[in-house]
Amino acid sequence: MYSKKFGRILLGFYSHNTNVSSVIKRRLATCPFSWSSACKHRKQLLQRTTIVSSERSVLLCQMSSTQSASNTTVDPEEVRRFQALASKWWDEQGEFAALHSLNDLRVPFIRDNLMSLHRECQPGRPLGGLKILDVGCGGGLLTEPLARLGGHVLGVDPVENSISLARLHSSSDPELGGRLRYRACTVEELLGSEEDVRGEEKEAGEGPFDAVVASEVVEHLADLETFAFCCGHLIKPGGSLFITTINKTNLSYALAIVAAEQILRIVPQGTHDWDKFISPADLERLLEPHGFSVLTVRGMLYNPVTGSWCWSDNTEINYALHAVKAAEEPPHRQAEPEGRA
Amino acid sequence: MHSLAKAALVRNKFIQLQQLSSVSRILGRRAVGTDTGDKDEVYDVVISGGGMVGSAMACSLGMQPNLEGRKILLLEAGNKKVMDRVPDTYSTRVSSISPGSATLLNSIGAWDHIMKMRCKPYQKMQVWDACSDALITFDKDDLQDEMAYIVENDVVVAALTRQLDSLPDIVKVKYRSRVVQYTWPTPYQSDGGVPWVQVTLASGETLSTRLLVGIVVAPHQTSGGCSSGVAPLQTSGGCSSRVAPLQTSKNNVAWQRFLPTGPIAMLPLSDTQSSLVWSTSHRQAEDLLALDDESFVDAVNSAFWSNENQSELVETAGSLFRNALSALMPSAGSPRQLPPSVAGIGPKSRLSFPLGVGHAAEYIRHRVALIGDAAHRVHPLAGQGANLGFGDVALLSQVLGSAAFDGKDLGAMQHLLEYETERQRHNLPMMAAIDLMKRLYSTNAAPAVLLRTFGLQATNMLPPLKEQIISFASK
């Protein structure tokens, strides 16, 4: 507690108005030699890609960007921050570099847990036939690998620029075209449109989904309760919910805010608000009334020198959570104990 | 760390990846995307170049479970090699297949076909110097294990082709297709830009692919001779290798003798036939080609048997050293054996081909990976050229399988970098060692001869060291 307040006073924690971006967690390693030169060396090693950022930003300026309607889960200020950085999504050495390398953990996490729940999968397409929703998909960094693995994926994000960029990036790949779609909307709007469709005929609706993925999203939301409610209604009974986010602890404050944003500057300042972080226990308490039961929680650690992530037993900073929606509808589930009593 | 090793080796003779960028400079950044005929069909992997390594790559990818449902294409400039029945005469070009390569070929199902056709395992190898008495022998202690296998290149390709025929759904092969131009990926935002590698064939067809695997480098783009610095391979002063099948008395051993002009090796093909590989200068190669069969056989026998290069000093020093070592380690060392004499040679079977030595500084770029001769060419003195290529195949295929299982774009740099790092860690020391051996043995100056004599004799007396050498070469 005191360390937190002291830290805030000393380092001027609350700076609201800067840009945004990816979630980058890291752990302050024990030997602080020259981070910048290590990161620079790694950047040079990977300089041989052909992604050009300048052309991208020019093109995106020409695209129209409409402000999405304000809704309860979305924080308008977060949306503004992400719009400014929309062009940088696919630069593997840019601001979102750590999100690109986070795919090494989160794609296998999602894939393996879904494969163990749905036994009938074909080799080459482990997620074949599954309908997946990626909430807060951004530029499609996680959406594309899931589609490549055979899933029918819908990516939603309130930031119009990001969705346009994601569509553009996936448009040239004929393999993804059939299985990957994007919509610029919030998760509540999606639920609303689903219910309209269900009311009429069951044809053009997107869900319900076998899995919903909200990776590095809940720490940017304004209202988690609504988010949990929407997820509860968008997922099939027995379906999965995957969340990766940051824990709310002193250590996460020290590393994810102070170290990452202010000292090492791996994340742009103001990306994260420590008050929005949530611990696994609180998240579980939030999800249970909506019919979810948490199956797995695993910690993740970022190594700033190599720029890679690894699994860890320590969930104090970053963690990944897998929850499953009950096979019966929540009202029945709540009615049961009363019946027994 | 590996960049330091690279710098040490980059002297004169390197095939730079600049040749690829020079191709793209010539082509300019033409938007080939307007060719809408093939726009919708994007191959997952196109392997440019067939032969042993290319066909093995195609088979290996085709049998990866994680790549099921993908589209793989092999482009072979030559005709399809079918071998229903093994011909009576041995073909001229052979390779020494190490146990590691045999494991790869077994895993892709081609080894069974090879065993049914023709291959010769050998357990023992003797290498000795023309300028002194020093020799080293390698043999597997229990004769059940093979050291390596001598297989004709045609047999390997035919076996791989037969295996490819059984994978029609995933792997397609285009024979007699020569590539005339490569177009590298452009950033996807620019108008008409295509984010894939585009390959244009001589027939005018254009193919798009997520990943291009290159096996061969076009001849005019290689640089570097083998001993005279940077020079095109056609000029004299370079090296070439003569190969021919020989008839000998019973032979189960691989022999190699280092002459000052280059090593000469006899590799067993069957009990009575062996294959000759003689690396020498262009001029001497031409002279040898011009000889008639009898004189050629005499030249081969004299190369293996004659002692004319030995001097008194070296002989004395060598025998002193040997006696000293055998006093220290009486049980180590092996008796010197002489190779079988050559009785005859197959008619019209002599072939000469130029040698190149080179190493690409980078094996990979965005959406491109080089394997086999395109990445590294070595002198045949250690019989490692094909084995390095097979090692590349095994690793790249495994890396691509894991990448596909993680949903990654096959042409992405991250896993290609892993392949490059891992292979360079293995290939660079091997190439350095082969280069060192070649330089050391290409002179008959007394100091060098004494040094290598002592070194060879000492190594011969140390079984643990020999075992390390064998295991490194067997991977």
TrEMBL record, chain A:
The UniProt record gives the binding positions of S-adenosyl-L-methionine as R106, G136, D157, S215
Q: Name one GO molecular function term.
A: 3-demethylubiquinol 3-O-methyltransferase activity
Topology in the lipid bilayer:
Peripheral membrane protein
Reaction equations catalysed: a 3,4-dihydroxy-5-(all-trans-polyprenyl)benzoate + S-adenosyl-L-methionine = a 4-hydroxy-3-methoxy-5-(all-trans-polyprenyl)benzoate + S-adenosyl-L-homocysteine + H(+); a 3-demethylubiquinol + S-adenosyl-L-methionine = a ubiquinol + S-adenosyl-L-homocysteine + H(+); a 3-demethylubiquinone + S-adenosyl-L-methionine = a ubiquinone + S-adenosyl-L-homocysteine
User: What pathway does this protein act in?
Assistant: Cofactor biosynthesis; ubiquinone biosynthesis
Which UniProt keywords are given for this protein, alphabetically ordered? Answer: Magnesium, Membrane, Metal-binding, Methyltransferase, Mitochondrion, Mitochondrion inner membrane, S-adenosyl-L-methionine, Transferase, Ubiquinone biosynthesis
Cofactor annotation: Mg(2+)
Q: Which terms does the UniProt entry file under GO BP? A: methylation
Gene3D superfamilies for this protein: Vaccinia Virus protein VP39 (3.40.50.150)
* GO CC terms of this entry: extrinsic component of mitochondrial inner membrane
E.C. number, please? 2.1.1.64, 2.1.1.-, 2.1.1.114
Q: Say if the entry is tagged with keyword Mitochondrion.
A: yes
Q: Which SUPFAM superfamilies match?
A: S-adenosyl-L-methionine-dependent methyltransferases
**A Pfam entry, by short name:** Methyltransf_23
- Per its UniProt entry, which superkingdom is the organism in? Eukaryota
- In this chain, Mg(2+) is annotated as bound at E216, E219, H220
Task: List the InterPro entries hit by this protein, alphabetically.
Answer: SAM-dependent_MTases_sf, UbiG_MeTrfase
**Classification via PANTHER family:** METHYLTRANSFERASE, UBIQUINONE BIOSYNTHESIS O-METHYLTRANSFERASE, MITOCHONDRIAL
Share what the entry says about its subunit structure, partners included: Component of a multi-subunit COQ enzyme complex, composed of at least COQ3, COQ4, COQ5, COQ6, COQ7 and COQ9.
Tell me its family.
Belongs to the class I-like SAM-binding methyltransferase superfamily. UbiG/COQ3 family.
Protein purpose: O-methyltransferase required for two non-consecutive steps during ubiquinone biosynthesis. Catalyzes the 2 O-methylation of 3,4-dihydroxy-5-(all-trans-polyprenyl)benzoic acid into 4-hydroxy-3-methoxy-5-(all-trans-polyprenyl)benzoic acid. Also catalyzes the last step of ubiquinone biosynthesis by mediating methylation of 3-demethylubiquinone into ubiquinone. Also able to mediate the methylation of 3-demethylubiquinol into ubiquinol.
- What is the name of the protein in this document? Ubiquinone biosynthesis O-methyltransferase, mitochondrial
From TrEMBL, chain B:
Query: What is the recorded membrane topology of this protein?
Result: Peripheral membrane protein
Q: What is its EC number?
A: 1.14.15.45, 1.14.15.46
Q: Which UniProt keywords apply?
A: Cell projection, FAD, Flavoprotein, Golgi apparatus, Membrane, Mitochondrion, Mitochondrion inner membrane, Monooxygenase, Oxidoreductase, Ubiquinone biosynthesis
What PROSITE patterns does UniProt report for this protein, alphabetically? UBIH
The subcellular localization recorded is: Mitochondrion inner membrane; Golgi apparatus; Cell projection
Its pathway, per UniProt, is: Cofactor biosynthesis; ubiquinone biosynthesis
Q: Name one GO cellular component term.
A: cell projection
Reactions catalysed, as given in the entry = a 2-methoxy-6-(all-trans-polyprenyl)phenol + 2 reduced [2Fe-2S]-[ferredoxin] + O2 + 2 H(+) = a 2-methoxy-6-(all-trans-polyprenyl)benzene-1,4-diol + 2 oxidized [2Fe-2S]-[ferredoxin] + H2O; a 4-hydroxy-3-(all-trans-polyprenyl)benzoate + 2 reduced [2Fe-2S]-[ferredoxin] + O2 + 2 H(+) = a 3,4-dihydroxy-5-(all-trans-polyprenyl)benzoate + 2 oxidized [2Fe-2S]-[ferredoxin] + H2O
Query: What cofactor does this one take?
Result: FAD
Specify whether Mitochondrion is a keyword of the entry: yes
Any one GO MF annotation of this record: oxidoreductase activity, acting on paired donors, with incorporation or reduction of molecular oxygen, reduced flavin or flavoprotein as one donor, and incorporation of one atom of oxygen
- Which superkingdom? Eukaryota
All copies of the FAD-binding domain together span 358-426
| SUPFAM superfamilies xref list | FAD/NAD(P)-binding domain (SSF51905)
* Protein purpose: FAD-dependent monooxygenase required for two non-consecutive steps during ubiquinone biosynthesis. Required for the C5-ring hydroxylation during ubiquinone biosynthesis by catalyzing the hydroxylation of 4-hydroxy-3-(all-trans-polyprenyl)benzoic acid to 3,4-dihydroxy-5-(all-trans-polyprenyl)benzoic acid. Also acts downstream of coq4, for the C1-hydroxylation during ubiquinone biosynthesis by catalyzing the hydroxylation of 2-methoxy-6-(all-trans-polyprenyl)phenol to 2-methoxy-6-(all-trans-polyprenyl)benzene-1,4-diol.
Assigned protein family: Belongs to the UbiH/COQ6 family.
Task: Give the record's subunit note.
Answer: Component of a multi-subunit COQ enzyme complex, composed of at least COQ3, COQ4, COQ5, COQ6, COQ7 and COQ9. Interacts with COQ8B and COQ7.
Query: What is this protein's name?
Result: Ubiquinone biosynthesis monooxygenase COQ6, mitochondrial
Name of the gene encoding the protein in the UniProt record: COQ6
